[in-house]
Amino acid sequence: MAAKPTKNTLMFYPWHHFVLLPAALILAIYGVRRYLTVAGDDSEVSRLWFTVAALAVVGFGVLLMLRQHYALTLQDRLLRLEVRQRYFEVTGQSLRPLESQLKLGQILALRFAGDAELADLTQAAIRENLSSKDIQARIQDFHFDDMRV
User: Fold this and answer.
1) Which domain of life, per UniProt (predicted)?
2) 44 neighbors 59 (Cβ within 8 angstroms)
């Protein structure tokens, strides 16, 4: 029987964490080291190693940023589902018909609203095209979300 994951369990995506990131890091270090040995020469070899090093460093940076992007995209989807569920629990109606009139930022701001004001604030956001900051400013019963990544 497999151990049940705990809250502090680290999750890894093997191809990303153990193949792509290390390979990109090794290529970046190797490219920079090779470039430093020929730096200052105005030769084709120097330009080639500069290009390899620059692309490897940029590629490594992109891989690191991609990891965060995936987490935030998934988190936005979960928060949208949370607001849908809370709206249904409060009103007994689905939020889906109204979602096309709301921007993602507005939906994410509505998650801070207490149950008593969620429905009215949703209607006001649609009617007045409130920004996420305006929505947050109108919230009387503010529920801070300290679990955001």
Assistant:
1) Bacteria
2) no
